[in-house]
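Record format v2
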Amino acid sequence: MLSIRTSDDWSAATVTFDDGGGPVAINIGADSRSAYDAMLQIMDEGAANHGGSWSWSWAAQSDRGALITITAGVAVSATFNAAAQSLLGFSASYGSGTTVAAASSAKGTLDPAAQLSVRGAWGTLPGDETAGGTGALRMGSPGVSMFPLRVATALDAVGTSRLQSVLDAARNPRQGWLYQEHIGGGTWRLAALGAFQLNHNRRANLWGLTIEAIGGLIDG
Amino acid sequence: MGSRIEAWLYSEGSKTVMEATSSFTAGGTDAILSGPKAIDDAITELVADIGGAFGITWRAASNAYEFDDSGAFTLTFTGNMHKVFGFSTPIGHTGQSSYTGDQQALGRYDVLKLECNALEDGASVDLAQYRHQRAEVLAFGNVDLYRARIYMTQAQATSFLASYCAAGKVRVYQDSDDTTAYSATNPDGYIDAWVVAVSDLTTDGITEEVVHCSMVLARPRS
């Protein structure tokens, strides 16, 4: 799954949970600029405010976006303001329960049926830490990965349409979270996203998508 | 038989954070490296600084070093020394007589395999520029160049590129059982060389289990 950071005002989004002790609002911070960033914040604050173990998951939708489901640590009712509904895909309100499932795909998400192949993610070079080897003149740029990540997938016609909307929503410079499934039981990689290249296979009517990506971002 | 790469540790002989790889304290006694040394030689000097029954041993199963003494002692690293030996934290090692690093040591990699091409002449000086054009490196001349290809596990690869073994001066054991230096009569001995370039990172396997990359090493001519 790709969760791109969008140009929207995420700080306008507010999610409110009530475990019976009164509503507690989570104001999505300005630094949470993607669905993934927002979910990290909701997980942290939800667990801190209401207790229990909070988690979230996503499922591919027919529009090739990702539908988010929050599993709360305790039974809660939930309300989402207009911005949160628009950005995260949730309905306005939910009755008490531990599962809060969105109604539509979160903004900036791309979750094709073929999933994303993310290879060559070998961490970023230290900005200031591990200089100190004898005569060290480290190759590459501090703070970013030494080699580009190789990101590829296949899209159908609906997927290319979804990709267009995702790229339209992206903020500049373009940054996004990529879910890499095969390492560490699933790892999210933050990357600077360069060119998106589509190659059409007319016979199968599928598009091969490759993304030029560099791991690590100087400004986080 | 396997291969391994070890770092040379830099030191100017003082215990300061700025000297990232020069010292640690064990049982209240400082061990301070007097100058740049290959990690095996550095360990010999640092162990002698502490004295007694103190010792540092490589633990292959952990890919890290073990520090032990005859009784309980407190171990505190300075700078990045803990990372060199495979510890995730510089402090908090207290109340035991033995401590083993909990992560891959950045000062030693027992790589799976190393292929080394025939020696090349590196008499000229080149200016190399990386293709994303953010960094330049001056490759010095009057050297013998070794073009090696190293194979490692996925777990090693995640830290190798940012380790002390991928930059600066390194000691490359072509055969880890041969602990004498390369020479005309000992062609599989170890090589002390400078890393000029690490490139062409390639992964094999569905889940990228094996990672290999090209490594150009320069050995100054004496």
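The helical segments of chain A are 35-50, 82-88, 157-169.
Chain A has a mean pLDDT of 91.
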